[in-house]
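Deviations from the work plan: none for this task. Representative record:
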Amino acid sequence: MIEPNFPQGDGLVPAIVQDAETKEILMLAYMNRQSWEATLRTGRATYWSRSRRSLWVKGETSGNFQLVEAIFIDCDNDTILLQVKQIGEAACHTGYKSCFYRKLDGKDFVVVGEKIFNPKEVYK
Amino acid sequence: MIEPNFPQGDGLVPAIVQDAETKEILMLAYMNRQSWEATLRTGRATYWSRSRRSLWVKGETSGNFQLVEAIFIDCDNDTILLQVKQIGEAACHTGYKSCFYRKLDGKDFVVVGEKIFNPKEVYK
């Protein structure tokens, strides 16, 4: 059975998160085996927070869960792609729809993303 | 000036590669500062090959270059998103259009991707 190669990446593999409908890239997060199994079991995207060093059910604080619609794996089994339905329309803790809300324009990045919520009102 | 946080990831940041037109995810690769600067300078996606430990101009062997149309950075400055025009229609060294050619179906992954070329004919 094919499964993500967790040992190679010190227990973690990156997961690209894509809006299932619009194909927009929402974020990149990391999964360990525990979060991978939780994602499969619950259908809600669950990651490993490298900064907090804990399991992270995306949306547990904000309510902006990610309902998993499809899962792909890459040729080397070391990256996962999740296609999700993003509850609340925003994936980024800054309130933008996508974490990739800044685009390179000449020599610097400029904000081009759509802001959905005010993080001060969501994370209290 | 905002730039990718190379020191945090031991000199590397992941780069998600997306077809600029179809929004399909083609692959995930890694960049160090040298490959980042080469990408900006040449307009051709250039990565750091972790297995070969060398600079890797995507397409240098196959001819399947990636012409960079847009570059985004995420909220933490630790992931890059490249939107590219994929020359030759295929990004994956296996001959599939995307490295994510296998989808989870029940308990295992099954091939759903489109095969564009025979790798034995391309990599001689």
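Chain A has one domain: 7-122.
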